[in-house]
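User: Predict the structure for this protein chain, please.
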Amino acid sequence: MLKRIYQPAAYQTDSLPDSYWVESASPLPACDRLPVSGTLKADVAIIGGGYCGLSAALELAKSGADVAVFDAGRSGWGASGRNGGFCCLGGTGKDYSVLAKKFGDDAVKQFARIQLDAIDLVGQRLHDWNIDADRHSDGELVLAHKPNRLAALQQEADELAHFTTIKTEFLDKDALKERGLHAADTFGGLHTKAGFGLNPMKYLAGLHEQCTRAGVRIFEQAKIDRFVENGEGYRLHSGDTQITAGKIVIATNGYSSENLPDWLGGRLMPVFSGIVITRPMTDDELAQQGWTSDLMAFDSRILLHYFRKLPDNRFLFGGRGGITATPKAFAEGKRTLLGHFNRMFPAWRDVELTHHWNGLVCLSQSWRPYIGRVPGHHDVWTALAWHGSGIAMASQGGKLLAERMLGIRDAQDLGSVLSTPMDKFPLPALRRVARSAAYGYYELKDRFA
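Assistant: Here is the predicted structure, written as structure tokens:
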């Protein structure tokens, strides 16, 4: 039996989420279902059909491998259909300077280049595959939610100048208003000119199509319960169905189980993030608040909010969701999220909301992703822990993982930030308790520090 950190409601796979992305994108074509019993064979079995799993599948299939993807629901039921649509820098919960203390400046510069390559990869795919994913926004904006956070923005600009080639621009309060970026209780912003916004399900649908064209077999409602190593490879079990494969890829990110494989136990901390979306607003309504720009943005809180105007003048606002997967927790998370939205954008307090949903963001104990072989296994591989930036990094991570498996790249090509295995949380059984306490502390720090 799969071990999960949350209640079963967090892992319902019977349907796609009630997100705006699912509603606005063309439905994915129906995929294969596993037989009730019997056997299947593949060169590579990939568990998880989101950005990472499909990107790895596409790369492996193009090399001639027979690839089968097994998703517990449908592609997009997890984070790929629930995220905020920010294709941006990320993948870590630590500043570059903090990572440099452990891995060195050169390793962090290499990591930064991979992040930029990840954004370019998604952009190139949209172009080459002719996907209209509602792309917009020249980079992203971080807003100081207190005057004393302005110094941190300058430090961030200095770090980006040191570790990357990314251009930045500091905007004071007046400049924010002039550019249609006015939110209450913000005192300046840093425009980082890398990344863009998109409809994540439209992108996923294009990636899904490319995989099927390349011969990837995608099985939906196909939950893998366990796998065992045999003399020639691996045997995976899904109920009474068995799949034999020479290699396995685990691409389940925040929806991973604690025991598939056992090595993952205690190394990940999925946390809920919630999103609300308004109805389309008129130009006058946007002007009343003073936010008319399509630049994607987030604020400087530890428990940050992220937001952007969509191309049809809807407004997306996201932030921390509930602590547990219960209706009560989700309802409380929505009330909290709306409270923050109303404070930051008071002119839109009475604007109708059309959608609200929750999803899991995957954090690791080491606050960085891992791409490589699962320790203790010869041919079980994984790429995960994108820290809320999975559109770009999971796409790139799946591609890089496939290239590692094919021998095109080695660990040195990925760099030590990505190829060093994640540590285990201390007292992992208490992760949820510790996270709840940490939220209380972070909220006080965001408010008063």
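Residues 136-198+270-364+441-445 form a domain with the D-Amino Acid Oxidase; Chain A, domain 2 fold (CATH 3.30.9.10).
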